[in-house]
Amino acid sequence: MEADFALGAVQVSSSPQERFSEYLQSRGKRITQQRRALIDHVFERHDHFDADELIANLSRTELGDKVSRPTVYRTLNELVEAGLLRRMNLGGRAVYEHDYGYPQHDHLHCTMCDTLIEFQSDELQRIRDAVGREHRFRVTGHRLIVSGVCQECSTKRHRRASPLDLV
Amino acid sequence: MEADFALGAVQVSSSPQERFSEYLQSRGKRITQQRRALIDHVFERHDHFDADELIANLSRTELGDKVSRPTVYRTLNELVEAGLLRRMNLGGRAVYEHDYGYPQHDHLHCTMCDTLIEFQSDELQRIRDAVGREHRFRVTGHRLIVSGVCQECSTKRHRRASPLDLV
DNA sequence: CTACGTGCAAACGGTTTGCATTTGG
DNA sequence: CCAAATGCAAACCGTTTGCACGTAG
């Protein structure tokens, strides 16, 4: 999957690596080779990925197959818990993206090529909070995915997006 | 799960049963006992449910255990395809609600009791379409889930909503 | 009569887990 | 040292599928 640099990073005081170390140490967890390899790889560039892509991608590097599948899953969970990654669910599988040092945003999801395009809307945020207030609901977050077909795919030959494609 | 009658039904020309029959016949599919039992049960009242709840619920009726698990799954897929049900994904499993004759809406999801509260926002629709235009993206639909804690759960004793709870 | 649908059991795919072994602090 | 993490293989869980039998039209 291609990187989407639609939004700029916000400045943060420490690197993801430092953040993760703090998180681990504060919980008596250890900084292992595998965790280092994973966080370095994951924060090398901003994109969306699932566990399989990460594993495939990782095994192409020198770090190679030094990290097993279960460890990848375990570490992804830790990175989410540490606030470094955000997880969303797309058609049954978990998809991850950078959270730490990255602004709140939502996604357009092309049902043909599966690409995720990021966008930001303050208005949306406003609506979300207003609706929460109306229902006396304490809002902690939201997930919006707009489904459709991206420009490139629109110009190519078509297949109908079925209702089954909707997230 | 409780029914949420937050929004009123819009009037439609034919019943879900009739709609389903049309759908089936137009495709050379058959109107079987099982399909009848399922659509009657599903449209008895408006609520959100997953496959397991439907099966459990159904086996409590006289129709009893006349419908097997695979048939429930197969029929749910047909009902979605027929435009009678909408499917959304909540924490790994599929959740269904009435689509036919029911207005477009989104959900507040309480991460403590798992209840879904419906709300409607024209503004949201507007934003969605505007964003699509900006990105030359042909929008076919969207899914928004606002996570948080509902009023009842807020007043009860707490457990922290972890980031893992986010849809 | 003959597809189409069903039920069963088994497969599936993404993710998690029990356990013996390795390793960080 | 020893608790925590890893790798392996197996379990898990929601969902789908192959196949022989049943049934709608």
From TrEMBL, chains A, B:
Species lineage: Bacteria, Pseudomonadati, Planctomycetota, Planctomycetia, Pirellulales
Family note: Belongs to the Fur family.
Cofactor-binding details, from the entry: Binds 1 Mn(2+) or Fe(2+) ion per subunit.
InterPro entries recorded: FUR (IPR002481), Fur_C (IPR043135), WH-like_DNA-bd_sf (IPR036388), WH_DNA-bd_sf (IPR036390)
Ligand binding (Fe cation): D106, H142
Localization terms from the record: Cytoplasm
Keyword annotations: Cytoplasm, DNA-binding, Iron, Metal-binding, Repressor, Transcription, Transcription regulation, Zinc
Quaternary assembly: Homodimer.
Designated name of the protein: Ferric uptake regulation protein
Co-factor requirement: Mn(2+); Fe(2+); Zn(2+)
